[in-house]
Design goal:
Elements: E1 2-5, H1 20-31, E2 35-39, H2 44-47, E3 60-62, E4 67-70, E5 73-76, H3 82-94, E6 98-102, E7 107-109, E8 140-145, H4 149-156, E9 161-166, E10 171-176, H5 181-187, E11 195-199, H6 205-209, E12 213-217, E13 229-231, H7 237-251
Parallel strand pairs: 1-2, 1-11, 2-3, 11-12, 12-13
Antiparallel strand pairs: 3-4, 4-5, 6-7, 6-8, 8-10, 9-10
Helix pairs in contact: 1-7
């Protein structure tokens, strides 16, 4: 059985790395014959920051499906076409939006110096913060601030893109149309109904829809419709996740 894990808010919290007890439980899964895969909104570059280096060779989906990684090799799954990207840039300028825009490795950041996203943005300086006009192969756009985010969102919805709204952070995640975690998982050889998914937000919906079993961490009013079960996010959430992994290992043993 394959186990697919979102990162932030699912198995790591407040931008901190995945803890050793959870990592140990994942290693135990692999020892039992299961495969562990990570699927995050983070680009691969920033996924590596919260995973111990002994996991860097595992299969990964980054940028909500726009990037995949196998054996440490990062590949694009998709990028914005020139026409759509030009339209987005016009709207960004029109609405005085600040952003974090990711290429396949480097990025462009114009947001506030105290924005929470900086807590897990390239903290080990693996990439370069480039001016937007010098950034190539753009795969994901996060709009951080704007004088009218709702109006901007409505105009973006008219474009050929996928938009995820992060209400807690008040930001918009924009991906190329047709790109999501499930589309990328298929590129990694994952089959419908043949895996278990752990997630916590709307960008995990496609992953949950196609899983044999899905586990939501915390509560989300939309994702809950697609989850088979949930784990309360409290002071012992990590212990509950570890117990759930042991239970699912036995339930779906080879």
């Amino acid at each position: 059985m394959q186990f697919v894990f979102d990162l932030d808010g699912t198995i790591c919290f407040e931008g901190k790395p995945v803890t050793e007890p959870i990592l140990y439980s994942m290693e135990h899964l692999t020892e039992k014959g299961h495969e562990v895969i990570f699927a995050s909104a983070r680009p691969i570059r920033d996924m590596l920051l919260v995973l111990h280096k002994r996991f860097h060779g595992y299969k990964m989906v980054g940028g909500n499906g726009s990037l995949i990684c196998m054996n440490g090799n990062v590949k694009q799954n998709a990028e914005f076409d020139d026409r759509t990207l030009k339209q987005i840039k016009v709207l960004i300028e029109e609405y005085h939006a600040t952003y974090l825009i990711d290429g396949d490795w480097d990025y462009s950041y114009t947001g506030p110096v105290d924005h929470p996203i900086l807590n897990h943005l390239d903290t080990q300086k693996l990439a370069v913060n480039r001016p937007l006009e010098r950034l190539e192969h753009i795969v994901k756009i996060a709009v951080l601030t704007s004088f009218n985010m709702e109006s901007l969102k409505k105009k973006l919805e008219n474009l050929d893109v996928i938009i995820h709204t992060h209400h807690q952070e008040g930001m918009l995640d924009i991906s190329p149309c047709g790109i999501h975690k499930w589309s990328a998982l298929q590129k990694l050889g994952v089959q419908k109904g043949k895996y278990i998914a752990f997630g916590n937000d709307v960008n995990d919906i496609t992953m949950f829809e196609n899983a044999q079993h899905s586990v939501m961490i915390g509560q989300h009013p939309i994702l809950s419709h697609y989850a088979d079960e949930s784990i309360e996010k409290d002071s012992i959430v990590e212990e509950k996740i570890i117990e759930k992994l042991a239970e699912l290992d036995k339930r779906f043993a080879y």
